[in-house]
TrEMBL record:
<comment type="similarity">
    <text>Belongs to the ORC4 family.</text>
</comment>
<keyword id="KW-0539">Nucleus</keyword>
<dbReference type="InterPro" id="IPR041664">
    <property type="entry name" value="AAA_16"/>
</dbReference>
<dbReference type="GO" id="GO:0005524">
    <property type="term" value="F:ATP binding"/>
</dbReference>
<dbReference type="InterPro" id="IPR003593">
    <property type="entry name" value="AAA+_ATPase"/>
</dbReference>
<dbReference type="Pfam" id="PF14629">
    <property type="entry name" value="ORC4_C"/>
</dbReference>
<dbReference type="InterPro" id="IPR016527">
    <property type="entry name" value="ORC4"/>
</dbReference>
<dbReference type="GO" id="GO:0003688">
    <property type="term" value="F:DNA replication origin binding"/>
</dbReference>
<protein>
    <recommendedName>
        <fullName>Origin recognition complex subunit 4</fullName>
    </recommendedName>
</protein>
<dbReference type="GO" id="GO:0005664">
    <property type="term" value="C:nuclear origin of replication recognition complex"/>
</dbReference>
<keyword id="KW-0238">DNA-binding</keyword>
<feature type="domain" description="AAA+ ATPase">
    <location>
        <begin position="56"/>
        <end position="235"/>
    </location>
</feature>
<dbReference type="GO" id="GO:0016887">
    <property type="term" value="F:ATP hydrolysis activity"/>
</dbReference>
<dbReference type="InterPro" id="IPR027417">
    <property type="entry name" value="P-loop_NTPase"/>
</dbReference>
<dbReference type="InterPro" id="IPR032705">
    <property type="entry name" value="ORC4_C"/>
</dbReference>
<dbReference type="GO" id="GO:0006270">
    <property type="term" value="P:DNA replication initiation"/>
</dbReference>
<dbReference type="Pfam" id="PF13191">
    <property type="entry name" value="AAA_16"/>
</dbReference>
Length: 461
């Protein structure tokens, strides 16, 4: 039995919506529509366009929380440039998640340069990657400094192909600030700043760390172009709904004329659902006021669209997924002493209006609360004519071990700072004095353990 034309159209519409929801935006293979980021994308496009057309080297930082569209925005700009300037520039991508240090990053840069070289010349005999990391660095830097991109090139060949602009996209750039000398960042920013008419380099760094510029060494900061693009998540519910609509709607121009009316009806129905008292609206509002994460919405809406009746655009209730914060899941698995340390650290942050805490401060609060509770209990026992109880004492070493486990679990996050130009991760002033950020609050603990009496008492300030 053959599928009728209307059914084919309905299925094509469904597949197009599912493609939007399941799109791997980090791949950079297809353009992804973004809401309210047109101006920022134009800035990226113009900067890279000047690099390609006028050999103007630039460096730029794109800062924003996860899920704000940093990588997708850069990928969209690169795809637009590829359409206008096909095969006229190279793109080198590295990530602090996968290439976590300078050595692995420079080897990845050399590997991608080798791939571009092979793709354009078919020459297997030339390679930028060397046995040692230092030799590889020298080999790559000789190219970035303006030397020929192809060694042993054809004498009658054209130099344009050999000296095409190179665009570096560095994801999780803050990971490379952990190196004391920050050699990789210095070399890339320096080459971008000193780009000549013969060879141009642009560097785009993506990071979630707002203060990443303060983590750069002085010499690295002096080579940086100081161009920063700051992205934020939607702050108003209406803006967040617009982002969701951009995610689940389709572009009628992408369809054949016979499907134009169907695509418009679908978009109109989705806009009505987002603006009215629908299950979709409730789901979006719940997400906005809790996690504010579009990726979670994608996971929830994918099965909803997959079983939707595309003739009436109805699909019943939307399945929920577990959106618990990872830190909440860790809290539920802590021992009693570890949980008490978390509460004490949070109490000290609130009482003293601090944003960081160390073990000594938390342990002092732990001893104070434990002693206070023991004294209260003994007063009650004395009134009743009972024997007093000795206070339960937990050694400092035991509590320090609990503190170290909290660090291992990720509930305590060490801030990255610089002391005399050296990253503080290399500075040791004693484990009990080292300052940390607490990833949860006392309110979070009280809400998660609201049915546990002792937790409620410890969280009460």
């Amino acid at each position: 039995m053959t599928v009728s034309e209307p059914e084919q159209n309905l299925e094509l519409l469904r597949q197009r919506v599912l493609a939007n929801l399941s799109n791997r935006t980090s791949s950079g293979l297809v353009k992804v529509r973004l809401n309210n980021l047109e101006m920022e994308q134009v800035q990226i496009y113009k900067m890279l366009e000047n690099t390609i057309k006028f050999n103007e080297g630039k460096s730029c930082l794109v800062i924003g929380p996860r899920g704000s569209g940093k990588t997708t925005m850069v990928n969209n700009a690169l795809l637009d440039l590829q359409e206008r300037f096909p095969n006229m520039f190279y793109v080198i991508r590295i990530s602090g998640f996968y290439q976590s240090d300078d050595k692995s990053a420079i080897k990845e840069i050399a590997r991608q340069l080798d791939w571009h070289l092979l793709r354009h010349s078919g020459n297997w005999s030339v390679s930028f990657e060397r046995f040692s990391a230092n030799d590889t660095m020298n080999s790559v830097m000789s190219v970035l400094d303006g030397s020929q991109l192809m060694e042993g090139k054809d004498q009658n060949g054209d130099d344009d192909e050999m000296q095409m602009p190179i665009i570096f996209v560095i994801d999780e750039l803050d990971k490379y600030t952990n190196d004391a000398k920050q050699t990789l960042l210095y070399n890339l920013f320096d080459v971008a700043q000193s780009s000549s008419n013969s060879h141009a380099v642009a560097v785009i760094g993506l990071t979630t760390v707002t203060g990443v510029r303060e983590q750069l060494e002085k010499r690295v900061k002096s080579r940086f172009s100081q161009k920063v693009i700051q992205l934020t998540k939607p702050r108003q519910l209406a803006e967040f709904c617009d982002s969701v609509y951009c995610m689940i709607s389709v572009d009628p121009d992408d369809f054949e004329p016979s499907m134009l009316e169907l695509a418009q009806r679908y978009n109109s129905h989705m806009k009505t659902l987002l603006g009215g008292a629908s299950e979709l609206r409730k789901l979006v509002v719940r997400n906005f006021y809790t996690v504010k994460d579009l990726n979670i919405l994608k996971s929830q809406l994918t099965p909803y669209i997959a079983k939707m009746d595309m003739t009436t655009f109805s699909a019943g209730p939307i399945p929920l997924v577990n959106t618990n914060n990872r830190s909440f899941q860790i809290l539920a698995s802590l021992s009693e002493l570890e949980l008490k340390l978390v509460i004490c650290a949070g109490r000290q942050l609130l009482k003293n209006s601090m944003d960081q805490v160390n073990f000594n401060i938390a342990y002092e609060e732990f001893e104070r609360i434990s002693s206070s509770q023991t004294n209260t209990l003994n007063s009650q026992l004395q009134t009743m004519g009972r024997v007093k109880l000795d206070s339960a004492h937990h050694s400092r070493d035991l509590m320090l071990a609990c503190w170290e486990r909290l660090i291992y679990y990720g509930l305590l996050v060490e801030p990255i700072r610089q002391i005399n130009g050296i990253n503080s991760s290399f500075y040791t002033g004693g484990e009990s004095n080292k300052m940390f950020h607490l990833d949860v609050t006392v309110e979070d603990v009280a809400r998660l353990f609201r049915h546990t009496d002792w937790v409620t008492k410890w969280c009460r300030i």
